[in-house]
Amino acid sequence: MHVEIWSLGKENEHFIEEGLQYYFKKTRPWNTMELILLQTPKKNATTDIERTKQQEEELILKKLQTGHYLVLLDERGKSLNSIKWSQQFQQCMNQGVKTLVILIGGAFGVTDTIRKRADQCWSLSNLVFPHQMVRLIAAEQVYRAFSILNNSPYHHI
Questions:
Q1: Cα distance between residue 108 and residue 6, in whole Å
Q2: Per the confidence metrics, is the pTM higher than 0.70?
């Protein structure tokens, strides 16, 4: 199963990119993972929150394919610990999911259309994090989940 982390927003700071590449490399023995940045064109920039969310929705829906399994990361989502993450990945693999997409929405969240399209909605924490940091945390948790599933000593219970 291939994992794609989709994130709206700007390019990564150097230290974030370095961390992402570290976890992408560590995950490779079991799984492939990549970050896909979705950026609205600068000419479409607006201060209208609903219009911004609509533009982001268009980007997401254009990229989303029928076979994608969409997991929305949202502070109001279901709270899972690392063991539960790994169990969710195992269930997806058992169901034959080819590409699992972990979506980090825009600064103002996502539209109801995206929320309804999501197969699952997870929360990383009750805290709010910068989008770039969430990319790194998500990559680490994907690595942790696959290390749990493969009995690697990385995760200590």
A1: 16
A2: yes
